[in-house]
Amino acid sequence: MDGHWLKEAANKEAVLERAGDEALWFSEVDEKHTTIYAQFKAIDPNQHTVENMRIEGNHFSEADTQLVQKDHGIYLQFESNPELAGDENREIVSSQTLGTSIISGLPFKLPDGTDFIIDKDYFGKERNHRSPDPGPFHAPSKEKVSLKVWPVK
Fold first, then answer.
1. Residue partners of 129: CB distance under 8 A and separation at least 6
2. Fewer CB within 10 Å, N side or C side of the chain?
3. Residue 52: what pLDDT?
């Protein structure tokens, strides 16, 4: 807040105690929600500069994920969640959706100064602009996925 960082607390109880020298934050994640607790000391966050934080459309996976080396490449193997496909509540990540950097206050741009848009996945496949899949890969419809991410020469 006002350009100062909050320190991550070890547990929720520490955030709920009276604020000390350092302002603290802590988060809890369940199947549907991420809850963030924060201390603002004696400051009214409505009267000060609070940096924007956008936490929508996040999806966490506790699936077994592995990098596996085979003769012809290195593969990322994981379990996909087909239920995420078709979620209508996501946007393509772009300069516009990211806004400005907290530290510099400048917009996110390409080196040549133009806006960027992440409209392709890791492999260059076009993303669905109405409802892009979360993460770097298009979410396959099958549950067990093996993607070649690096060739081996």
1. 92, 119
2. C
3. 47
